[in-house]
Amino acid sequence: MTMLTYGSISAAAVAKRGLATAASANSFKIPVIDFSKFRAEAGPKEKQQTAEEVVTAFKESGFIYLRNHGISADTIQTTFQKSADFFRLPSEVKSTLAWEDPRSNRGYVKVGRERVTQSRDPNEIAALRAKAPDFKESMEIGRDWDSEWKNMWPHEANVPGFKQTMLDFYQTCHNLHVNVMRSIAMGLSLGESFFDDKINDQCHNLRLLSYPPVKRALLDGEGQARAGAHSDYGTLTLLFQDSVGGLEVQNPHTGKFIPATPIDGTIVVNVGDLLARWSNDVLRSTLHRVVAPVAKLIGTNETLTPARQSIAFFCNPNFSATIACLPNCGNNPKYPPVNTGDYIVGRLADTYT
Question: 266 forms bridges with which residues in the sheet?
Fold first, then answer.
């Protein structure tokens, strides 16, 4: 019997490839990974097993739920409480701390000022912002010892304990970032400490997020969302969600978005664009968005979405670092080398008014 072929690929191979793609689409999920053995300095075998689980997940979905990550529930709860205290301040008080410069990326961002998108065209972004702004406000915090750019803190009397809580949380999140990057290094057979001197300047961004209640009708227009579909810019994002939910992750095989429902005791960790670029796309930076949860009826024909809080810690390489194809990630780099600082500042400049 003669086997049909398409070019040099047999019909059987085409069918097999199609089945594999369908299987990938149907099996897409965000796995829950127990990080305790890696953190506890377990034996080499146990640490390597966890590292391989992390890297496999980041190759397939780009997202994980991390359990036993080492950040206590009390620490997270206190940070959420101080964040809520800040966003309850009057608008005129918050506006005195307004975000001003992408090189700094610090300060308060009012509702509608940011429009996250994959576009790099300023005119297109401006049009999207005018038509469908993101319904959220945020407070951006960087490393506090920076010699050039300073954080913008509210008066202590207005939000007692806010500054120290956020400084402590920033350091705690950086420490977790180091550990997860060490697991990635092990999983890619680079040596556990490979990334240590490339992320030690702590050029990160702690973002406190508040999604105010909003009439559902305002979110039903074309392109509207609490935060539009986007990927993140840096190495990893550590996301702390409340119980309201709304985060959705795109299945790269089908284009459909699936809910990343909050799971008690876990945080969501995802790959950013620079880590994907660094790994020559071996690790996947996946599109995600925030949509409105089920709304409550407030009138005959009107509904209101509930408020939502989240905290994102955007992890970055050192701003002086050059991002070029890693060893063990292919012999044909897809991207030219890029400076971290130039890349991050460029993306931020496109995103804000």
Answer: 67
Q: Is the confidence at residue 117, as pLDDT, over 80?
A: no
Return the C-alpha torsion angle 230, 233, 237, 241, nearest 10: -30
Instruction: Report the length, in residues, of the chain.
Output: 353
Instruction: Tell me whether residue 329 is in a domain.
Output: yes
Q: Is residue 17 part of a domain?
A: no
Q: How far from each other are the two terminal CA atoms of the chain, in whole angstroms?
A: 65
CA R_g for the chain: 21
In this prediction, residue 129 carries a pLDDT of 41
In this structure, are residues 223 and 132 in contact, taking their beta carbons and an 8 Å threshold?
yes
Look over the chain and give the mean of its residue pLDDT values, rounded to a whole number.
85
- Residue pair 131/225 in contact by the 8 Å Cβ criterion: no
In a domain, residue 112? The reply is yes
Query: What distance in Å separates the CA atoms of residue 57 and residue 47, rounded to the nearest whole number?
Result: 16
Phi, psi of 134 (to 5 degrees): -75, 130
pLDDT at 250: 95
Record the tokens describing residue 99, joined without a space. Answer: 């975000």
Residues 186, 192 contacting (CB under 8 angstroms)? yes
In sign, the C-alpha dihedral spanning 334, 339, 344, 346 is negative
Which range marks the domain in which residue 207 is found?
28-351
Query: For the whole model, what pTM was predicted?
Result: 0.84
Alpha-carbon span 153 to 106, nearest angstrom: 10
- Residue 192 belongs to a domain: yes
For the ranges 34-38, 213-217, 235-239, 276-280, which has the lowest average pLDDT? 213-217
With CA atoms as reference, report the closest residue to 255 among 15, 10, 25. 25
Q: How far apart are CA 226 and CA 251, in angstroms?
A: 19
CATH code for the domain in which residue 72 is found? 2.60.120.330
The predicted structure's pLDDT at residue 201: 98
The CA distance from 182 to 132, in Å, is 39
* 203 secondary structure, DSSP code: -
